[in-house]
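Example record used in the benchmark description.
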Amino acid sequence: MATLPNPLPRLAELGLRLPPGTVMGTHLWLADGQAAPGGWADLQRTAPRVGLLPLLVDAGSALGGPELWELTPEEMSYPGDHDAEEVLEEFWDAYRDEDWPGLAEAPHIPDARHDAEPEAVAAGVADSLVDGLDGGGPLKEPRLALVPARRSADIPTVIGWAGPANHENDTARLSAVLRSWEDRFGVRVVALGFDTLLVSVAAPPSTLAEAEALAAEHYAFCPDNIDQGSDPTLAAYAAHRLLNRPAWHFWWD
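Model output (structure tokens):
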């Protein structure tokens, strides 16, 4: 994958106020302790200016923390080399015996909100994942992390994350879809587990028709969400998981 200059080897020189942590491999810094509310927002205010983006990493899942993940950034292609709709249509055709319905239309986001709102929503979602943890949420042990990426959508590819391996081995193809969701729905990658992905959504669908159109993209992106989820139809998934939802959660078997 084509990458920007990596600031992680110079992390100690960058002047960031960080909790104790460790650089893992070449493209991930991970805090030693569990994240606290406000930690994401603190990193978001300072880290992007030196080429780093914040992330929550689940270090406490039954499948192990990132020290046990197979991170292979060198095996990933570049997200910009893939067309999001072509990727989704290919997946759709592989799993559904019906014509691809096309991409959902983007909701209107006022220009004044377009830049600031996604970051504010991401910070709020991050806080909700670490505030009042009782072991029942999607993350068992969320830790703050930093990744050298220009776009949030590229984070899974930059670290060489293999969570969707049973669906797609080149994570850059999924990052291409995440880039499209960034542009259309104000999505930000907030958290990664061994095989889970959680994103914040600044402009989710606000009508059932919009949600149902988007549900087809979610099915192509992550069929397990529907086929093995509690909402086994696209209509039910749209109504319960997408309509006015500020976060989307994905899981690959």
